[in-house]
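Support request, please re-run this one:
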Amino acid sequence: MFSKLFSGKDEVSTVQWNNIATLGDLEDLHKLSNETPVLIFKHSIRCSISSTALKRFEREFEEPADFKPYFIDLISYREISDAISLKYGIVHQSPQILLIVEGNCIYSSSHNGINYQEINEKAKEHV
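Re-run finished. Output below.
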């Protein structure tokens, strides 16, 4: 979905991303993390490394995942991106993924370290 928007190509993502566009969205996913692991993908549409990491993640993604995926365009929603970093005590990077379980960030990675299989294994431990 998003990689098509940012690359201009006809790539189709199998990830059913949930958009984070408000502080309310952030609070909703925080509450949801008490029921199921939540993944946040922080993406910069201006960064080629971020676009590459997003495309790779989307290619590797398999349904059903053991987490609910959320996406934030940190250029458009920088204030919310900063709130995510503060809320979970994680230094901001881009691209970056955070795995949230029971209101805590239990795993984070950035740039070329973003690996779907590793993320999903971490999530399975908390399902």
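The chain has one domain: 2-122. The longest strand covers residues 104-110.
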